[in-house]
Design a protein that fits this description.
Layout lengths: L2 H10 L7 E7 L2 E7 L2 E3 L8 E6 L4 H9 L1 E6 L5 H8 L14 E3 L5 E3 L4 E12 L4 E12 L8 H6 L3 H26 L9
Antiparallel strand pairs: 1-2, 1-5, 3-4, 4-9, 5-8, 6-7, 8-9
The structure holds flavin mononucleotide.
Flavin mononucleotide binds next to strand 2, strand 4, helix 2, helix 4 and helix 5.
Length: 196
């Protein structure tokens, strides 16, 4: 990495984002993933809106697109094991919700019974930037379920075992290989080239 890329990376490393578990279901298919690209997108409490960025190769993105909705969950610091269940691998290969108590939301999304808080969201529109699909979604329901502080990315990484870190690196390497061509294709429609 060049010197100035490293300096930019240092800036991003100052940010610690909360961990969200995103779930969605389309008919009998259900799944979920861990996301940090979740943001409140409206200051109006009467019209709550979120933006969520999901990679198009992730199963949960496919389900959220098909269902037109999804649920977002904040989890407590004690719920690390639950988070790892969603952070690794693909819901195409296994039911990530097996054994996890859930109720069904109005969009069909599974709502985790044990979490700090949840929001259910109905998709208004999406924007495809190649390696991410951004979902603008109305928040149609939500509840604070437990007390405590939301788990953050730093908490998750700090408590990870060597095996969990290795599995995460492997998944990230696969994503890093798959996603840049998609992003470059999106960039080609704009005149400005990314800096080298
Ligand atoms: C800390 C952390 C943050 C993540 N943030 C996102 C994110 O914002 N969007 C996304 O699509 N994937 C994100 N991921 C990756 C997915 O959670 C992961 O690849 C997941 O296994 C995909 O599952 P699926 O294919 O079953 O949907 C993140 C993973 C971790 C560990």
């Amino acid at each position: 990495m060049s010197d100035w890329h490293q300096q930019i990376e240092q800036v991003f490393r100052l940010i610690d984002r909360e961990i969200w578990i995103v779930t969605a279901a389309a008919g009998p298919r259900r799944g979920g993933l861990v996301a940090t690209w979740v943001s409140r997108a409206s200051l109006d409490p009467q019209a709550p809106l979120v933006v969520v960025g999901l990679a198009p190769n992730h199963y949960t993105a496919e389900l959220a697109l098909a269902a037109g909705g999804f649920a977002l969950h904040l989890v407590a610091r004690e719920q690390l094991e639950l988070v790892w269940q969603f952070a690794l691998g693909s819901g195409r290969d296994r039911d990530k919700l097996a054994g996890v108590p859930v109720t069904t939301g109005q969009t069909g999304a599974p709502i985790l019974s044990k979490c700090l808080a949840w929001l259910e969201c109905r998709v208004v529109t999406t924007y495809d930037s190649g390696d991410r699909i951004f979902f603008w979604a109305d928040v149609v329901g939500g509840q604070r379920v437990g007390a405590g502080t939301p788990l953050t990315e730093t908490d998750l990484i700090a408590a990870a075992s060597p095996e969990q870190l290795a599995a995460l690196r492997q998944d990230m390497a696969a994503d890093i290989e798959r996603q840049p061509p998609l992003r470059l294709k999106w960039r080609q429609q704009f005149e400005q080239r990314p800096p080298q």
